[in-house]
C-alpha cells in the first residue's frame, strides 16, 4: 500500500492525540520539485532476508512515542 507524507503526518497526530497539520502554500509555483513521488519497495528485503514488518505504521509510531524515541 502506498503511504504519503500526509498519511504519516496524520498517523503521528492520531498517535499523539494532539496537534494539527497546517497547509503551507507554494510560494513560487514556477519551481516544481524534481521528484513528485517516492515509493519504497521492501520486496528485495523480503526476498533476500525474509523480512516481514512486525508492526504496522500506526503501532510503530505509537511504540516510538511511548518509549520517547522521538
Descriptive account of the structure:
It contains 3 helices and no strands. The radius of gyration is 16 Å and the shape is flat. Helix content is 41%, strand content 0%. By secondary structure, the protein is mainly α. Helix 1 crosses helix 3. The mean pLDDT is 80. The longest helix is centred in the first third of the chain and has 12 residues.
How is this fold's topology laid out?
Layout: H1 5-16, H2 43-49, H3 57-66
Helix pairs in contact: 1-3
Number of strand segments: 0
Structural class: mainly alpha
The 3D shape can be described as: flat
Radius of gyration: 16 Å
The amount of beta strand, in percent, is under 5%
Total number of helices: 3
**Low-pLDDT ranges:** none
Percentage of residues in helical conformation: 40-55%
**Largest sheet composition:** none
H and E order? HHH
Distance, first to last CA: 25 Å
Report mean pLDDT, rounded to a whole number: 80
